[in-house]
């Protein structure tokens, strides 16, 4: 008997893909991947109800469906619009989308401070990437930016409300992953802010996951703050036998030498926390904030980082060290001579430290 496929076809930027009914345009675009995928600042596939807040994922629907091929009159939020059989969508091939997206970036940056040089999120900030990819060089905004008083939310997480773009992701984490909902958005318009009740959501084993979902530097790791630029650290995949119920124990360690500067959940190509065995790989605060020794982890290998990311610079999974040529060209002299002059120099008197003598060096300070 012939099996009937209930898949539906959608064409995005001239690429046709078959998807299950109920798939959104954004999910279908992610199946194609690459530049065809619209950016998403508020949608997070692991958080129910996310999406529909930021409008960065706007696309043009050139044909609604095979049954009704009329175009949709306005650009639509791809994270909240389901595909129809025969739908034709334009993202990078649309003439309208770049202008609309530049407008959205302008709105998102109205109140966002341009403090990337001192912001810990720099290098992995989705708004920074969005600004570079879709923003305009100048701003038309003439008013002061909105500012908020600092709120201390404990020893682990720094809240910087001025940077918040109200994507709601952290409120969904508090709602869906921590024990009770004590965190939301209060007020409206330019007074809107994630609720001060966030202080209550912080007393929870999984509160650190709010840092991982925040697309900007509004929620950052206090134990890592100002310690290092992310692109100077080396991310490695690691796991440990964590006993906290619900913690996957799989993380990325951000190393400098052997020192663990930061621990985060593992992220996928969309910047979302990866899934393992069908479950989202959230990690607990013990893994994130209190396991900063490499001896507490089993290191699996270097994390794969997109080559388009600044974090990927100088990170090599298979590194072949170049052959040592100094010894060859120096007629057998070890290169350490150049590094540790006091112990191996054939010139200095090893008992005399030239930097410590309180007079100019003269011939008796050197070996004859
Ligand atoms: S703090 Fe971050 S995650 Fe929370 S709403 Fe603001 S931007 Fe989104
Ligand atoms: S990602 Fe679609 S509206 Fe924010």
Write out key terms for the chains shown.
17% strand; binds iron/sulfur cluster; 4-stranded antiparallel β-sheet; Ubiquitin-like (UB roll); single chain; alpha+beta; 368 residues
Which regions are unreliable across 5 or more consecutive residues at pLDDT < 50? none
Structural domain tally? 4
Mean pLDDT: 87
Cross-sheet strand order for the largest sheet:
2-1-5-3-4
* Euclidean distance between termini CA atoms: 97 Å
The bound ligands are: iron/sulfur cluster, FE2/S2 (inorganic) cluster
Any idea what the shape is? globular
Largest sheet: 5 strands, mixed
What value does the Rg take, in angstroms? Answer: 26 Å
Q: What's the tally of helices?
A: 10
Q: Residue share in helices?
A: 10-25%
Q: Quickly give the structural class.
A: alpha+beta
How much strand content do the residues show? 15-25%
Task: Write the element-wise H/E pattern from the N-terminal end onward.
Answer: EEHEEEHHEHEEHHEEEEEEHEHHH
Strand tally is 15
């Amino acid at each position: 008997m012939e099996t009937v496929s209930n898949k539906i076809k959608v064409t995005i930027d001239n690429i046709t893909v078959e998807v299950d009914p109920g798939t959104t345009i954004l999910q279908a675009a992610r199946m194609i991947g690459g530049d065809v995928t619209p950016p998403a600042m508020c949608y997070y596939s692991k958080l129910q109800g996310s999406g529909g807040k930021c409008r960065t994922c706007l696309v043009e629907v050139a044909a609604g469906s095979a049954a009704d091929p009329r175009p949709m009159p306005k650009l639509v939020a791809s994270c909240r619009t389901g595909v129809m059989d025969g739908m034709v969508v334009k993202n990078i091939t649309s003439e309208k989308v770049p202008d609309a997206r530049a407008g959205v970036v302008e709105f998102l940056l109205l109140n966002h401070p341009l403090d990337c040089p001192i912001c810990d999120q720099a290098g992995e900030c989705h708004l920074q990437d969005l600004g570079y990819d879709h923003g305009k060089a100048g701003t038309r905004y003439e008013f002061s930016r909105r500012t908020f008083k600092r709120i201390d939310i404990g020893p682990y997480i720094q809240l910087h409300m001025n940077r918040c773009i109200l994507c709601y992701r952290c409120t969904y984490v508090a709602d869906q992953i921590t024990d009770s909902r004590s965190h939301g958005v209060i007020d409206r318009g330019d007074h809107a802010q994630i609720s001060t009740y966030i202080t209550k959501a912080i007393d929870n084993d999984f509160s650190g996951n709010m840092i991982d979902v925040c697309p900007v530097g509004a929620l950052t790791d206090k134990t890592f703050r100002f310690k290092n630029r992310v692109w100077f650290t080396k991310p490695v995949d690691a796991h440990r036998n964590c006993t906290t119920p619900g913690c996957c124990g799989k993380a990325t360690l951000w190393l400098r030498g052997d020192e663990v500067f930061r621990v985060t959940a593992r992220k996928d190509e969309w910047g979302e926390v990866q899934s393992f065995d069908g479950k989202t790989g959230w990690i607990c605060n013990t893994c994130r904030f209190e396991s900063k020794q490499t001896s507490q982890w089993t290191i699996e290998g270097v994390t794969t980082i997109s080559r388009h990311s600044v974090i990927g610079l100088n990170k090599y999974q298979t590194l072949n060290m170049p052959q040592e040529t100094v010894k060859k060209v120096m007629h057998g002299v070890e290169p350490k001579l150049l590094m540790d002059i006091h112990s191996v120099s054939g010139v200095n008197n090893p008992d005399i430290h030239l930097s410590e003598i309180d007079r100019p060096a003269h011939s008796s300070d050197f070996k004859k």
